[in-house]
Design a protein that fits this description.
225 residues, alpha/beta, globular, binds D-xylitol-5-phosphate, binds zinc ion
Length: 225
């Protein structure tokens, strides 16, 4: 099953002083999803933003809000992120003992459910929850910061997850260190959603973002099978 290639800019690398404008600009530039990195200073060694900021951004674009929760515990906050307007809510497999419950809760809120795994976590943890998720997010850096270097063995994990997914309707997303060099490696292994922060927001404004989104799409398409 070939799923559409989607580019999901992470606004972690955007200008926080004008986030509404940034979200509108990057959507106009051709972004498919908006990737929202939520960090709690506990599960990851950094703090970003929460549901109030996401809610304020919601009127600025019609693009899918792809929420990546790097928080532990996640369950007490799932409803707040659903109410804020997130469409896909992804929790980390490492963030709590009851992954299945978290996924069921996300779906019961009417949202798509995702699971992310850190570089040190094997793909096999996903085997038992395949029927309960809509998206798998393979981290290609240790979560917490933008601008890190792509970890090469993430490519093997993407290929393993791709094989595990088979014909199921599950998006396969990769996050961290995605550039025109690494994007084709990820799509060749089977990823169809590419998160990119610093590679997209290195310029400023619609014209710059269109160039970076287009170049990533072109590079990613080149690697597809
Ligand atoms: C890392 C975040 C990523 C990050 C990606 O913890 O989950 O989404 O913003 O940034 P780049 O593309 O700069 O690696
Ligand atoms: Zn992310």
């Amino acid at each position: 099953m070939t799923r559409p290639l989607l580019i999901a800019p992470s606004i972690l690398a955007a200008n926080f002083a004008k986030l509404g404008q940034e979200v509108a600009d990057v959507t106009e530039a051709g972004a498919d999803w908006i990737h929202l990195d939520v960090m709690d200073g506990h599960f990851v060694p950094n703090i970003s933003y929460g549901p109030a900021v996401i809610k304020a951004l919601r009127p600025h674009t019609k693009a899918v809000f792809d929420c990546h929760l790097m928080i532990s515990p996640a369950d007490p906050y799932l409803e707040a992120f659903a109410d804020a307007g997130c469409d896909v809510i992804t929790v980390h497999a490492e963030a709590g003992p009851h992954l299945h419950r978290s996924l069921q809760t996300i779906r019961s809120l009417g949202k798509k459910a995702g699971v992310s795994i850190n570089p040190a976590t094997p793909v096999s943890v996903l085997e038992t929850v395949l029927d309960d998720l809509d998206l798998i997010l393979i981290m290609s850096v240790n979560p917490g910061f933008g601008g890190q270097k792509f970890i090469p063995y993430a490519v093997d994990k993407i290929a393993q997850a791709h094989a595990l997914i088979g014909n199921r309707p599950i998006n396969l997303e990769v996050d961290g260190g995605i550039t025109v060099e690494t994007a084709p490696l990820a799509t060749k292994a089977g990823a169809n959603v590419l998160v990119a922060g610093s590679a997209i927001f290195k310029g400023e404004g619609v014209d710059d973002y269109r160039k970076t989104v287009d170049s990533l799409k072109k590079a990613a398409e080149g690697g597809r099978r």
